[in-house]
Amino acid sequence: MAAVRIIIPTALRQYAANHDAVEVEAESVEEALGGLVGRFDQLRRHLYSDDGRLRNFVNVYVNEEDIRYLGRDATTLKKGDTISIVPSIAGGSSSLMDRLASKRKDILMPAEIKRYSRHLILPEVGMAGQLRLKQSSALIIGAGGLGVPLTQYLGAAGVGRLGIVDFDVIDETNLQRQVLYGTRDVGRKKIEVAKERVAQINPNVDVQTYETRLTSDNALDILRDYDVVIDGTDNFPTRYLVNDARVRRASSTRRKAPATDACMRNRPHPASCRPARRAGSSGCSRASSAPSKRSRRSSSSSAGETRSSVGSWSSTRSG
Question: At what angle do helices 190-201 and 147-157 cross, to 10 degrees?
């Protein structure tokens, strides 16, 4: 007999006296699960069908290996092994469920259970954490050297909705670091190729693209519907603009400070917008002083910024 640990998923803990893990002694997965339901009988009907077989929608892992690719119930155990139970929340026809998956954000389909299995066996993520990822959204500003790996990893991880802001086309000089693109993509729009690649990586992700410069005129409209906004650009003006928009958006749920509105309208920032260096100071979150004329000229020439009619910076050039 080997002492092993069984991780109880959140959805089933109410039937196991609220334990998140239970230790049992067993030589096989079948014995381990039998010992588990013997101790907590209410679990039996959730794990086993009336004929005593493990239900089809219950996925079991030994350490990080799915027992379906090992010895199934007869998979042998050794001391220190960890068994993870990952029940699929929804059963039924897989084809029907796959069609519903794109619309429902409150459940994981069987195909998603398999795709994210390495996440689900992590106690820090589990079913609840993966559902939060599916229900979340992130906006990536710039599809260049920073935005590309972010797009790949967030898409693969299962973030439900990704937004990409970029107006650039793929150049041959991008290829050595922007690994989402290939030689055949040279001359194509970055957002078009990025959307195609994310669909290949994870078709469950809803990708929305914005082929535009980010300006003070459109920043609030674009950023408002996303949980997380990630700056993947290579210039300070855009960084300031993103910060201003997020500060103003956050302030809309409480009473906005007048200085925040001024920040959105004026560049360089008025003195009232500049916080003191000391910790805990109020106002906009940014550098303690406006960029020098030299740095502004450098940023403008390297990133292709333009001034709008109201004098606000506008740029969304990616590295």
Answer: 30
Could you write out the DSSP letters of every residue in 71-121? TGGG-B--TT-EEEEEE-S--S-HHHHHHHHTT--SS--HHHHHHTHHHHT
Q: 48 Cβ partners below 8 Å, 6+ apart?
A: 37, 54, 55
Host H or E run for residue 208: strand 206-210
> Do strands 2-7 and 82-87 pair parallel, antiparallel, or not at all (unpaired)?
parallel
CA atoms of 237 and 313, how far apart (whole Å): 6
Torsion of CA 301, 305, 194, 118, to 10 degrees: 90
Q: pLDDT tens digits for 58-90?
A: 888 898 788 888 888 888 898 889 998 887 654
Spatial distance between the Cα atoms of 124 and 2, rounded to a whole number of angstroms = 26
The full set of domains in the chain, from first to last, is: 1-87 (3.10.20.30), 137-314 (3.40.50.720)
Each residue's pLDDT tens digit, 238-288: 999 999 988 887 765 444 344 434 444 444 443 434 444 444 433 344 433
d(CA 9, CA 127) in angstroms, rounded, equals 7
Token pair of 319 as six digits:
């590295």
**Is the backbone of residue 265 left (phi > 0), alpha (psi -120 to 50) or beta?**
alpha
DSSP structure string for 229-273: EEE-BS-HHHHHHHHHHHHHHHHTTSPPPHHHHHHHH-SSPPGGG
